[in-house]
Amino acid sequence: MLASLFQRIDSKTDELVALACELIRFPTVNPPGDHYLPCVEHLGRRLAGRGFAVEYLRAEGTPGDTDRYPRWNVVARRDGAKPGPCVHFNSHIDVVETGANWTVDPFAGIVRDGRVYGRGACDMKGGLAASVIAVEAFLEEFPDFRGAIEISGTADEESGGFGGVAWLAERGYFSPPRVDHVIIPEPLNKDRICLGHRGVWWGEIETKGRIAHGSMPFLGDCAVRHMGALIHAFENELFPELDKRRSTHPIVPDGAKRSTMNFNAIHGGQSDDWTGLPAPNVPDSCRMVVDRRFIPEESLAGVKAEIAGILDRLKRSRPDFDYEVTDIMAFEPTLTSRDAPVVVAVAEGIRALFDREPDYILSPGTYDQKHIARIGKLYDCIAYGPGILDLAHQPDEWVGIADMVDSAKVMALALHRLLFKKSLS
Predict the structure, then answer these.
(1) Domain closes at, from 331, 350, 367
(2) Which of 130, 183, 232, 394 is deepest in the core (most CB within 10 A)?
(3) Is residue 425 a part of any domain in this protein?
(4) Phi and psi dihedrals of 391, rounded to 5?
(5) CA quadruple 373, 376, 378, 382: dihedral positive or negative?
(6) Which residues share a beta bridge with 221?
């Protein structure tokens, strides 16, 4: 029976590649959130043709949702012949901007040398396609399965997931008793199980000044200089401390075992929406967005207090220094237990296919597991899927065809274990 399931998935290789290419050809770039509806409808039509009940759900009122860029999601469910647990495969459909230096059309779905190229091939339309093929092969092999299977394509993971999994979780789509186990096919390599991720705090820090004529800056107060002082303090005080902190958890890649902070964006003075020459002004505002990633040994409260301490010291020591901090997004680290049913099931699939123990890892960045845990209160959730994490968001992004096939086999084996409560291997 194991050989028969594997043969069935192998026979669907061309179909798997075609589906991955079809999904890549929807340029679902976020922001702003293009082409969500045609992408989820394409997925929904396929699943409806396989006996799934399909819902299209718009997350109205969530960040970025407008009539021009509506936040559409699809959730498809197929119930088995008998009651039992529900296994849910969740993938985000949005992709980041392409950026420069591509050597292929990023939305053509190019197949070359055993790889599928395109924006989202790795992160994570290849994983979505693999999960669909895994489920379809499983249904053909085990039409009398018990329980239920769900597949979702959701919006906005790249910008926090608030118009996708978070919105659905608030409405009970990721909570027991509707769902029991969740697999998110993010690109973490086909022989690794991702148990969770580091924490994150995104914030905007604004330093404040006073406008004046640029030829008489002594009559004003330059907010950009204040920001420079803050950056100097970060460079000399905070970054050296972050470099000293190292997690004992198996976070990948190795550099992510440390605490990190990235300056995501900075802007001071006049906006750039003018033509001609700038006016001579002293900037009265400078804003910087920081992306602080923290390890499980740290807390969100500690992360924020550390930055607040530097700001408060500057306010005491630097004349006229004033600031404001705005939270953009914040999540604690997530960590699923190694003995959770979904972890055991996927590990069994990896052993059966690769004849080795899986690696257990944590992701450097957050993904939608955070919403499933904090809102849905469902903790039997992992990330497992094809693709090399380092390729995500890069030019010439690709996913290996053999990796997609192998991951589909592991997902199908895990599905059997979770629904039938026994091993095929």
Answers:
(1) 331
(2) 130
(3) no
(4) -85, -15
(5) negative
(6) 210
